[in-house]
Design goal:
eleven-stranded mixed β-sheet; two-stranded antiparallel ribbon; about 35% strand
Length: about 220
């Protein structure tokens, strides 16, 4: 009888582990931006970060948001809701630190360390057709290579991001649209092992202040790679 009870308990424990598998979580921690970032970059970031972890508690990444995003838009756009396209391309939107090697949306290895994350729009070229469900990305740049907050030339952004991969393609994190009502940052399962960190940031435009929803891919890959 005791043996049967132990087997039942083991089965329940096993099922619990399976049920939790794949559940990523995020929590806010009062942690200053990494010292590897320049003073200028640290100055536009939040003084706390989102710590994203997997089901067994391993930290996947830490993300510091930009305090306020620069933007553009009309009064009607503010009323209807802003999108990534109202933020100037190459804008720093966040900083991110990986405690160990990370695999980006293209399955490229990103070494452990701190990076800036700048907004980029997928080039309208045939070789990018169908490679992702959306055309907005965050490009990773090693902290030491990105010391100014100002916008960059697009070609310069792509070149600098090569330093994140050591290859011939920038380090990329796909951005999903997000118009949820949650106040706090959340992790959303997009299916096919793709998960995003969803959050909202204040944005200042010509027509006034508003809020922009963002969703950064923190796990999963392009299915065409």
């Amino acid at each position: 009888m005791r043996t049967i009870t132990m087997l039942i308990a083991l089965a329940i424990s096993t099922n619990t582990v399976v049920a939790e598998e794949g559940k990523y979580r995020t929590k806010t921690e009062k942690t200053a931006p990494p010292e590897e970032l320049s003073i200028a970059v640290r100055g536009v970031l939040t003084k706390s970060c989102e710590v994203v972890s997997d089901a067994v508690g391993n930290t996947i990444c830490e993300v510091w948001f930009r305090e306020e995003l620069p933007g553009k838009g009309t009064a009607d756009q503010l009323k209807n809701g802003l999108t990534y396209r109202e933020v100037p391309e190459t804008t720093i939107v966040a900083a991110i630190r990986f405690p160990k090697v990370f695999s980006d949306f293209r399955k490229q290895e990103i070494p452990a360390g701190a990076y800036t994350l700048r907004l980029a729009f997928q080039p309208d070229t045939g070789d990018h057709t169908g490679t992702a469900p959306h055309t907005e990305f965050g490009l990773l740049i090693p902290a030491a290579k990105d010391t100014e907050v100002a916008e960059l030339e697009t070609k310069a952004l792509y070149k600098m991001s090569l330093g994140a991969t050591g290859g011939d393609h920038p380090g990329v994190l796909l951005l999903y649209p997000y118009r949820g009502n949650e106040v706090d940052a959340t992790i959303v399962d997009r299916g096919d092992s793709v998960r995003t960190l969803n959050f909202k940031r204040p944005i200042l435009t010509d027509a006034g202040r508003s809020v922009l929803g963002m969703a950064i891919t923190v796990s999963g890959h392009s299915k065409t790679r």
